[in-house]
Each structure stands twice: as C-alpha cells, then as structure tokens.
Design goal:
Low-confidence stretches: none
Strand content: 5-15%
Distance between the termini: 38 Å
Radius of gyration: 19 Å
Largest sheet: 2 strands, antiparallel
Oligomer: single chain
Order of helices and strands: HEEHHH
Number of strands: 2
Shape: elongated
Length: 102
C-alpha cells in the first residue's frame, strides 16, 4: 500500500489510534479478574500523532465563531455550546462509547 493513507498512518495502525485494553488474570479458584486497564487514545492524541495541534484547532474554531457572533450568525449561548462541545470532543475516546449519547 502506498500513498497518502500509508503516509498519514506511519506507525499508527489505524486512524482511530489505540483501543482500550484490559489485562485479565485467571485465578485457580476465583475465576478471573481484571488486573489492569489500559486507556485507548483520545482524539487529541491521534491528532498529535499526525502533526495536528488540537490547541491551534480550538483557537481557529474560536476565531471563526467570534466572526459568526459579530455577524449575528450565532448567539453568544450558541457560541459557548459550540466551543464546549468542540473542546470536549477532542478529549474523548476515538471509538464509539456509551458516553457519546451525552
């Protein structure tokens, strides 16, 4: 495989980053238990892997939202909601999860 897809992946094996993982241990009598949980990548982490700056992206969206606010295209409460959702989304897990319903 050659081209942009391979170029963007590098050592990253897929565009969503690492999944959550658990280390499970089997006991002799008590069955199994989760010994360790390894958190998967956040959206911001995956963006960093491919040389994007989430901080810069937030600033660009904020600037564009301020222009839209100034031009009466959105209200101040709408701008606040947009920015909160945008910033929150960058800290979330890249795969679908139960907390995506919020």
């Amino acid at each position: 495989m050659n081209g942009a897809y391979q170029e963007i992946l590098g050592d990253l094996h897929n565009l969503f980053g690492d999944t959550n993982a658990v280390h499970v241990r089997l006991g002799e009598q008590e069955g199994y238990h989760v010994a360790h949980v390894v958190k998967g990548d956040s959206v911001a982490e995956v963006l960093h892997y491919v040389q994007y700056s989430p901080e810069h992206m937030i600033e660009r969206v904020r600037q564009q939202a301020e222009v839209a606010l100034k031009n009466n295209q959105i209200t101040l409460p709408q701008m606040r909601i947009l920015m909160r959702h945008y910033e929150d989304s960058l800290g979330k897990y890249t795969y679908l999860s139960d907390d995506d319903d919020e």
